[in-house]
């Protein structure tokens, strides 16, 4: 850490301390060209690699003690971090072993944190880890061997094409962690935990820094501004505000004041919203060159991270900023070990661009996450005909519960176009009570044979291929059908039920529904899965209808009913 500039800004009327810039700084400026803090002078840094002079502000030699800030009650973040570090760092860490003053061993930060201990996911490496990786490490990697394997794999994702034994991203990361500890030792927290330190580690040293004038609402304040060269989707300027002994992140890429371009207009934003993007940039920018297959795998990580971020907002009941442009439909069936199998069906009212594919995330409060659109759980597509939009559907078994759901389109680079975000309850379906599952109205039903009859997935279940009907309107000449399961029926020695199933159409007359035509009765039906359909001929009047389904268990004597509404149009 270089010297700390301490002086009184012209007209400021109070003391302030300005940290020296990382290698490559320009003279600090306050509002107005060429003005420096009172008593400070500009000195040259050693030349940077690649040429170019570097400058920082040197403080006046006298009066530093009198201009130091008064003692303050520590910020709550400082207290929490101090307690956390006391739990993470081994006893005796950083001491010289004698009776003298403790000596911080910056070179041992990697030795302390980059090893198979619980604190790996809470230490500096947490700056690079995704929420999924943190959860996986802290909940699944319980033994030392499991943690060691996770850490090897974690760093290996940044060295996929590197020569054996080389990992430039890992080396650069820990080098910056050590450098942050030295540069920002004027704050109560370790350098890698400070806001300046975290930005330094993920983005590197700024090209220049300055003390600038900023407008926060109606208040004019002084801020520390760091500047980097322009880069795709990365901030060019970040500003910090000082409170006590700490510098806190305030805003990224603040706009200049239209009336006075030398003044920055800041709008405070959450540092936590910026860090995941910077972490992903670090993992990509400093890794060895990737193959096309590896780029595709990395793209999956990008859209997963964005789905996770939006799910965070759903679970916190915060605005997601996602406009609902599709209407998902759900159907639930029982699965093994108390799980629930679901179909998630989406009408393609939004046409994917070339290279885009459907993806989704179901996530609980307890961090359980289930992704759709992966190679293992892909979306399948079916045309519907008649000018109706095509349908895409994914299927998976999950634990019953309340989920945050995010749906979108991801391109080959991993960029996500979110299309729907909200909550969905995945219901539990007990099989010890006579009941019906979700009744899916269908456009077409095909009975499968051979190996296909055993397949379960999108559009396939219980030996049938089902194309659902999303809306309630059925036109003359179309097929109308239903698909469902009967649960909890008494079984014989061969595991078969004995059911009588009655289908009765009813037409709306005023405020009531009355029977339309004769019922269709299926006696001695023995399976749990049932599908039935009939054509809607032109003789059907244009009206509102419903199909009443009655099931009687001939062994137990129990019965259950359900109905589905629909409307017939020419």
Describe the protein's topology.
Blueprint: E1 5-8, E2 15-18, E3 41-45, E4 54-58, H1 64-67, H2 76-88, H3 109-113, H4 131-139, H5 144-156, H6 168-183, H7 195-203, E5 208-216, E6 219-227, E7 237-243, E8 246-252, E9 255-256, E10 263-265, H8 271-285, H9 292-315, E11 329-334, E12 340-347, E13 357-363, E14 369-372, E15 380-382, E16 391-398, E17 401-410, E18 416-426, E19 435-436, E20 440-447, E21 460-461, E22 464-468, E23 473-475, E24 479-487, E25 499-509, E26 512-515, E27 520-525, E28 529-535, E29 543-553, E30 559-569
Parallel strand pairs: 5-10, 23-30
Antiparallel strand pairs: 1-2, 3-4, 5-6, 6-7, 7-8, 9-10, 11-12, 12-16, 13-14, 13-17, 15-16, 17-18, 19-24, 20-22, 20-24, 21-22, 24-28, 25-26, 25-27, 25-29, 29-30
The average pLDDT is 82
Number of helices: 9
Beta strand count: 30
Q: Would you tell me the structural class of the helices and strands?
A: alpha+beta
What is the fold-level CATH name, i.e. the topology of the domain at 435-569? Immunoglobulin-like
Strand content: 25-35%
**Quaternary organization:** single chain
Query: What form results from the Cα inertia axes?
Result: elongated
Could you give a short account of the major beta sheet?
Answer: 6 strands, mixed
CATH class of the domain at 435-569: Mainly Beta
The largest sheet has its strands arranged as: 8-7-6-5-10-9
> Could you name the ranges where pLDDT drops below 50 across 5 or more consecutive residues?
1-76, 90-106
Q: Into which percent range does the helicity of residues fall? A: 10-25%
Q: In the CATH hierarchy, what is the architecture of the domain at 435-569 at level 2?
A: Sandwich
CATH superfamily of the domain at 435-569: Immunoglobulins
Terminal residue distance? 80 Å
Radius of gyration: 32 Å
